[in-house]
Amino acid sequence: MEKHVFIKLCDRLRSYGLTSTKGVGLEEGVGMFLMTLGHGVGNRIIQEQFQHSGETVSRQFGIVLKKMIMLAFDEIRPLEEYNEVPDYIHSNDKYWPYFKDCIGAIDGTHVRVSLPVDEQIPYIGRKGFPTQNVMAACGFDMLFTFVWPGWEGTAHDTRIFSEAIRNTELKFPKPPDDKYYLVDSGHPNMRYLAPYKGERYHLQEFRSSRQPKSSRETFYYVHSSLRSVIERCFGVWKARWRILQHMPNYNFDKQVAIVTASLALHNFIRREAIADVEFESCDENQDYVPELEDEESYINLTIDENHIGVVRDRIARELMLS
Asked: What's the pTM value of the predicted model, to 2 decimals?
């Protein structure tokens, strides 16, 4: 994290009421918190590095975490009304004007959790170890606009997605009627654009084989390329915060809060950084997708051919003619 970003972060947390405590300055407390998340180290390492007792380290972590959740409420949300075409699309002939009404992408990902053996079963999905399923939406600026962590690893993405758009208390940023998100498979709604079923889809498959020939394959290729923004977001986020790979034995609610805090920090750094190493590879190469260990996530829904399917067919034809 760049120095000026750290200073701004401390100032923001101060505005939420974070203060220095006896023996621990505000900046030091934030530094301990960031080291814990960024390096995935335990209490003992923080004790040695900052010369504080284990009790002080633990207490300070909890204090900062609460303020980070307040940060998340302000950072993880759409900041515009979707009146303008995203620069990412408008500046790229591969996407413009075909996807001019697209505002972002939605997907799910898994984060390891640490649970007692007798509580693990609902959280052990296809990966073979306990995880929490995290649903997220992002824009093409690589900022998360919605996150919902804390689901059991066995929970299907379809269920999570459906609950998110039905539950008004979550304030999921539904797009206007003439806009849509990209997803893996469709939804019976005009606002979620999926690929065709039964064809090759993932971007790396096109890179390793022949170029797309039909209108459907062309659509797949461009859809996959554009939708990869959510995969890049997940990749940068997980690469930066190593605690996500080996979650400590906190209670589950605290583990969920850590995920939320790290997502908020992802957005804060993206907005404030001048030259952030983690984002540079993605900015320099729009097709770059960080490798994610054991990553496999899908949203499998049912397409409504009378609505979004019409949009999909139109884009496929236009891409083939271009």
From this structure: 0.87
